[in-house]
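@channel sequence for tomorrow's demo:
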Amino acid sequence: MRVTLQLTPHRPDLRAAFTAGHGRDLTGQEQVACRAWAAIDCPAALRWAMDHHRDEEVIGYARTVLDLLRAPNPVV
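structure tokens (generated this afternoon):
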């Protein structure tokens, strides 16, 4: 989930490396699962960031994922 939503949305080279290493593209069910896990992970990540001195890296991750979850045609 983090690879597909956090690291590769704006890096087609990393997405290609991920799918090459995985041996295939994600199935539709796997894409849906990634989005569901991301929706669960974001609040937990934000809570952790707030408990750890407003960790900007984690807050940035959560913002990126939330933006992607709001997109009508997400990368994942």
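heads up for whoever presents: The chain has four helices and no strands.
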